[in-house]
Amino acid sequence: MAEFKRILKQMRKNNLAMLGLIIFLLELVVVIAAPLIIPYDYSAMDIMAIQQGPSMQHFFGTDELGRDIFSRILYGGRYSITMGLLSVAISTTVGMAIGAVAGYFGGQVDNIIMRVLDVIQSLPAMLLTIVISAALGSGYFNTILALSVNGLPAAARMLRAQMMKVRDSEFIEAAVSINCSRFRIIVNHLIPNSLSANIVQATMAVANMIVMAAGLSFIGLGVQPPIPEWGAMLSGARQFIRQCPHMVIAPGMAIAITILTLNLMGDGLRDALDPKLKR
Question: Rounded to whole angstroms, what are the CA distances from 7 to 4, 27, 269?
Answer without folding.
Answer: 5, 22, 8
